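Lab manual, section 2.4: Encoding a predicted structure.

Procedure: take the sequence of the chain (622 residues), apply the prediction step described in section 2.3, and record the output as structure tokens. A sample record is shown.
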Amino acid sequence: MTITDTRAVSQPFQAEVSELLHLMVHSVYSETDIFLRELISNASDACDRLRYEAIANPSLIGDGEPPKIRIEPNKQANTLVVADSGIGMERQELIDNLGTIARSGTKAFVARLTEAKDGAGLIGQFGVGFYSAFMVAEKIVVISRRAGSGEVWTWSSSGGGGFEIAPASEGEAGRVARGTEIVLHLKPNAAKYLETYEIERIVGAYSDNIQFPILLMPEQGESRQINSASALWQRPKSELKGEDYTQAYKSITGAFDEPAMTLHYRAEGRYSYAVLLFAPSTKPFDLFEPARKGKVKLYVRRVFITDDADLLPAYLRFVRGVIDSEDLPLNISREMLQNNPQLAQIRKAVTSRVVSELETLGDKEPESFGKIWDAFGPVIKEGIYEDFERRDKLLALSRFSTTLGEKRSLKQYVADLKPNQTEIYFLVGDSIERLKSNPRLEAASARGIEVLLLTDAVDAFWTSARLEFEGKPLKSLSQGDLNLDLIPLIDEKAKDKSEPADEAKTIAVIKASLGDRVTDVRASTRLTTSASCLVAGSHGPDRELERLLSQQNRGSRTKPILEINLRHPLVAAIAKAGAEAKTADDLSLLLLEQAQILDGELPEDPAAFAARLNRLVLQGMA
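Recorded output:
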């Protein structure tokens, strides 16, 4: 063994790691079993990396010994060893990998872990699995030799403020020919993890489908393999049961929930590949982070290549699992993957299959599909805007809150159209409650017309695409002209038969009062009881989309159109006060400002609004 740098160095942890370790060491979680699953998963990743790098450099496995994982409990020493013969780590890799967390979500994880009563289920979602070992260990020693290197290094920590790294002793180096050995000095209350039956139980529950042999080496007796080490996705569906898929899901994804959908098939023909994909039933913490990508792993003939190949579009980034190709070259680089035509065909075919499977689930198992939609509906709707090829299918797949109920499909909507109704109506806003009280709903409600109530941020974007479903265009109630005259009222007797104010005169007075605060003033066909509302023009973005873009500094807002209800007493009062300029101005501005408030906006000058309102109230009391 030749060590180029013989220094033993103590270093502090990154701030986030210190906070994380404090939580691990001083908190008690009910699912402490997770530490073993995470260490085995890390060991499997190291073995995968070795196999991948050995394609270009076979000398890395010069001894011919295939990668494997071993677990050694030692009751006498009170230690549990988890070791692998994978790629191993050099000195700097130990510092980088075990002293810092190069992950943007770390702070969010620490915050979530602080809040959670039982945070063990969060660990696998954030890539901080190694540190979970401090839940059961009072000290951890890591001995590692990088494949192809003669240097062996030891990293150790007691979970305090830092760690020590030093050259391995001769005895330590002799135990690690290649790969990494993790020695856990267990806490007194973690002695159960030295029992062979307990280790076998955890491996069976979480790690049975790891692709490498997991050998249990008890203090007495011979070592034995305790996992099946089979590529479950390569086995026929007829051989598998529901619990096999659930176990594979938890093993592959590191999740604790149950999969809401499982898709397993083999494609034969021009390209051959096996697919095993899962839709979770709960959403991960980073679903809407810009850097978030899909978590589908690419294998080539059972050799792991990457989990960063973008095998599904962004709107399916919640899908997890494996795609294993029989045709791609094993030595394909990650750069080549971006422009590989075969992979592009696989991506296209698998995407269509996932969408079709979701459609089938929605029809046959609405409860399971409901879990997926509750967790990932806003993400799936991104595809309506982004994926023109599958737009119609994604529209059919979508479920909506409407004025008639929850999780309504457009197929159900069209089946319940009113006589003479030729459009699908929707309204976009920031909450269901505010939308239900929005004055723009009044004319539709009076006719019993169902309206889609859209409250996800993405709704303002996909609805701007001018869509239709089964020949019925989608129409915003807050944009353009609206004519519902051919659709009968629910109760004709309730129709307001009062005399409307003079349209031309009233509009002229209001326009003179408001000036350039609005683009136009016109009589409304949307309103039945409210005095006014704001709408956008027929061309250009809807008001909600403008609001969102403005918040992101991606555009300025255009002046709205003010629609007025000519039968409302306030509007009639403006017509009567035409010669009294001050009263007409006050009432006209009040129409605009109350419409802004009903849209969830503040008047441009709240103090002037309050003074104006007080003035009108006192005038009415005089």
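Check your result against the sample. Confidence is low (pLDDT under 50) at residues 102-106, 117-127.
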